[in-house]
Amino acid sequence: MRFQYKSVAPTATLNSHFTFSDLPPPISVLPEKYPSQISSYPLSLSPNALVPSMEKKMEYPDDPIFVLIKAREKKNIDIAQKTYKWVFSPQTEKKVIGFQGGKKIYLVFFVKEIQMFMGIAQYKSMNFGKKYFKPTATISWIFNSTLNKNNTRHLLNPYNSGKPIYEGCDGQIIKTDIGEELLRIYSESTRGKL
After folding, report:
1. pLDDT for 116-142, tens place per residue?
2. Residue 164 to residues 37, 56, 109, 158: CA-CA distances in angstroms?
3. What long-range pairs does 27-33 form, CB within 8 A, spacing at least 24?
4. I need a surface site. Which of 59, 89, 91, 159 has the fewest CB within 10 A?
5. Could you tell me which residues are beta bridge partners of residue 69?
6. How far apart are CA 140 and CA 81, in angstroms?
7. Contact, 22 vs 16, CB < 8 A?
8. Portion of the chain with pLDDT greater than 90, in percent
9. Residue among 89, 46, 96 nearest 66 (CA)
10. What residues have CB less than 8 Å from 93, skipping those under 6 apart?
């Protein structure tokens, strides 16, 4: 059954008289006859709500800062654990550099290939210059063992719509109390291995 709409096309203009009724229908039910309405949404807004992207607008009061690092392959983490170096994606690099200045920054490594955490490291500094092919971070490993994501399903990140921490994108900020609980879980999981 297809949804029926009146022929009057809704208009959306951001001004002092803007109301929710001015929005076109949600994209999930938008009929094919109004494809042009999709492009009328302001870029800073999600299609179905007047809520700016938290990543773009929010200044995090957290200290320390926990940053999720999504690696595609385990071998990349293996190299980082031996060299104590990591090359960020461009967007994550900008974010981490922006947090420098007194706050501790912890990097939470998760590998997509095996769907497991691979450790937590503290960010120390960024290295630039001819010696490095790309800007390279110096890191110090706190934990460098695997942790099954099933052990962290209850750790929901309010900075990512309450989703489990491993579902964030590369560079996603993890709320401090959630990150500290992950540290505790890691500590308990490695206690018997020491």
Report:
1. 999 999 999 988 866 656 789 999 999
2. 33, 20, 14, 9
3. 29/3, 31/2, 31/3, 31/5, 33/5
4. 59
5. 109
6. 9
7. no
8. 54
9. 96
10. 126, 135, 137
CA angle at residue 115 from 147 to 181, to 5 degrees? Answer: 40
* pLDDT < 70 stretches in the chain: 1-59, 129-133, 192-194
Tell me what pLDDT residue 36 has: 39
State the pTM of this model: 0.67
The pLDDT value given to residue 47: 36
Average pLDDT, the chain: 76
Written in H, E and C, the secondary structure of 99-153 is HCCCCCEEEEEEECCCCEEEEEEEEEEEECCCCCCCCEEEEEEEECCCEEHHHHC
DSSP characters for 22-47?
GSPPPGGG--TT-GGGGGGS-TTB-T
Residue 169 DSSP one-character state: P
